[in-house]
Amino acid sequence: MISYEYPLNEKVRILLRLEDLFARMTHFTQQDHSMGHHAALSTLFEILEVISRADLKSDLLQELERQKRVLSNLHNNPAISEQALEAILNEIEQASGLLLAMSGKLGQHLRENEWLMGIKQRSVMPGGTCEFDLPSYHYWQEQDMDLRRANLRSWLAPLLPLHAGLKIILRLLRENGKTFRFTAHQGTFQQMQGGRVAQMLRVRLSRELACIPEVGANKYAINIRFIAANYAAKTTLVEQDVPFELTFCSIST
């Protein structure tokens, strides 16, 4: 099965983008070659751009506090494991504490690093970080891989509380999902919302089906079109029926 997640509001969209970027940053930082570390640094610049556009710290703290209140009300519920409940409440408490300890504007430590900002400015140009453009960056890339890796981790470290907070929220969001099985007749599916509230949709379908879902949703209706997986031709709707799973993911507000 292939899973596709579709955020239904801007807050979840930002969290999913950051989740992907933090995962990519971790992956490339673990590489040994300088090209992997170049990719990691480029990803760090992307993280900086995303966190610069939103009041992310405040949003995360508010959402964590909201979930803490909701979960605290589940104490003494026989259907809920007290041990598991305490574990997630402790995670929320720790993540909130780390976020509260963050001072100043998010990513300011990166913006104050003129060397990094010089690389960031050049990186938006095609091939702009070649050795003749940035000899000091070329020198860094020629250093021992452990030194480069340590630098990357130190630049990322002040932003890790954001990652800890968003991981908890997205985990709760995914775990609070209701899944239904549908069939898109001749590649098209539509359903009225009927008051159902969700912050994210997840579409799962067989890998053997050579099609890709395109989702459009608002508070009234969900529309899904399954497009043929053709990487060169014009976008075309598949003509066959497509069985799929649709999960409505939501957390208490």
TrEMBL record:
Cell division factor that enhances FtsZ-ring assembly. Directly interacts with FtsZ and promotes bundling of FtsZ protofilaments, with a reduction in FtsZ GTPase activity. SUPFAM superfamilies: YacF-like. One of its GO terms (biological process) is division septum assembly. PANTHER family: CELL DIVISION PROTEIN ZAPD. Keywords: Cell cycle, Cell division, Cytoplasm, Septation. Interacts with FtsZ. InterPro entries: ZapD, ZapD_C, ZapD_sf. The keyword Cytoplasm applies. Its main location: cytoplasm. It is found in: Cytoplasm. GO terms for cellular component: cell division site; cytoplasm. Belongs to the ZapD family. It holds the Pfam family ZapD. It comes from Candidatus Gallionella acididurans. This is Cell division protein ZapD.
